[in-house]
Design a protein that fits this description.
alpha+beta; 6-stranded mixed beta barrel; two-stranded antiparallel sheet; 57% helix; elongated
Length: 405
């Protein structure tokens, strides 16, 4: 034990004696580890951000969209339509087990007094607010009677009053203009935040019948239909009910391709995670090339160190140092250089991740697994690239070494 500690002390003294050279030697490792940590943090942060957004959207929600129409097994250019009748059929057939909300949307000019903005207007049913767990801070939601009567009423997203330069409490009950038509503001939604590339805080919600026949010029096709099951465990049942009802409504025979698509947020999350993981591995692999270059640099400098310290090795061997002790000393030097480089690289990667998060607003997440892997990998590089120089030093003949100039 005492001998091992003495060998470690000699190795550390050799590193301190050439501090600047040691730092420059480990620079490749530092850059490589920092790059890997930063790339993985960006990938993990993006994944966590999307997971949070999908959680806000709801994990028990199915989205139905129109699909391509087929003829003779060949897809045509036009798409089949989803209509309010389809949504009505789903609501009638589900027996109250599912919440249904059709959606039709388009960007419209919204004006109040001398202020105006251009935002997405969503036509839907009151169930939409239940499906996505919306709350109102002022006023109320519109109701089914206003949907049936095609009333010009609107519920504004949290950020819309700010865009119209008016306090939200003063907008409730007032009349705004949408595409030149008057709408009464009946409610203001609580802040929701961005959810999977959708910004509900900047949207305006109106009855679907009003949107289709008064605002969007008689449009009859829906953008999508949202269906919420009681829990994620009920999604399979909901999927089967939707498929059965819509096939009947669209007169699609068993075995034929459906002209609609049913997707859930779990599928979206899975697809994103697979894509994100691929890019993360790709970027981390590119960054790992720096680790390889750094390892080669360490092997090179260790070979130079062996040459410079040939007489030292000869003296140690003449005083009784074994081959194993000499080899252990040079391996320790390589391991310490790489491990310290890895540690500095982790700190640099963490700092770069925080900088990107604070300055650029990117989501980053430094995973403990990535830190541990980087440190172990950097130490492994030191061991791998330090073996040859250590063996070369250990095999030196003491007499030849003492004669070396």
């Amino acid at each position: 034990m005492k001998l091992a500690l003495e060998i470690i002390a000699v190795a550390l003294a050799a590193i301190r004696a050439n501090a600047l050279r040691s730092f420059l030697t480990t620079l490749g490792i530092i850059i490589g580890v920092a790059a890997v940590i930063t790339m993985v943090a960006l990938g993990e942060g993006a994944q966590q951000s999307v997971e949070d957004q999908i959680q806000r959207m709801g994990t028990n929600v199915l989205t139905i969209r129109p699909g391509q129409s087929m003829f003779g097994g060949v897809s045509r250019d036009d798409t089949e339509a989803l209509t309010v009748d389809d949504a009505e059929a789903l609501r009638a057939e589900s027996g109250g087990l599912l919440k249904i909300a059709p959606e039709v949307s388009s960007r419209s000019q919204i004006a109040y007094l001398r202020w105006n903005t251009r935002n997405t207007v969503v036509g839907t049913w009151p169930e939409y607010f239940e499906i996505y767990d919306h709350e109102v801070t002022h006023g109320r939601f519109f109701n089914q009677g206003e949907v049936q009567g095609r009333r010009r009423v609107a519920v504004l997203g949290y950020s819309v009053p700010e865009l119209l330069q008016t306090p939200p409490e003063l907008l409730v009950g007032k009349t705004i203009q949408m595409n030149g038509q008057p709408f009464e503001v009946v409610g203001i939604l609580a802040e929701k935040g961005e959810a999977a590339w959708i910004r509900p805080d900047e949207q305006v919600f109106v009855p679907v019948s009003t949107a289709m026949y008064r605002l969007f010029g008689g449009r009859e096709r829906l953008s999508s239909v949202y269906v919420a099951a009681g829990s994620p465990d009920d999604l399979d049942f909901a999927y089967g009910e939707i498929d059965r009802v819509l096939r009947r409504e669209h007169r699609i025979r068993p075995g034929e391709d459906a002209d609609f698509n049913i997707r859930n947020s779990a599928d979206l999350l899975s697809t994103f995670n697979e894509t994100n993981q691929t890019f993360t591995y790709l970027l981390a692999g590119i960054a790992a090339v720096s680790l390889l270059v750094g390892g080669i640099g360490i092997m090179n400098i260790m070979l130079v160190s062996v040459t410079e310290r040939t007489r030292e090795v000869g003296v140690r061997k003449a005083l009784g140092a074994t081959r194993k002790a000499i080899m252990f000393q040079f391996l320790i030097e390589a391991l310490v250089l790489c491990f310290l480089g890895g540690l500095l690289g982790v700190l640099g990667g963490y700092g770069a991740s925080r900088l990107m998060s604070n300055v650029m607003g990117w989501e980053t997440l430094v995973a403990p697994e990535a830190v541990i892997t980087a440190l172990v990998f950097s130490a492994g590089i030191g061991l791998f690239f330090g073996i040859w120089p250590a063996q070369r030093a250990a095999k030196l003949d003491p007499i030849d070494a003492l004669r070396y100039e």
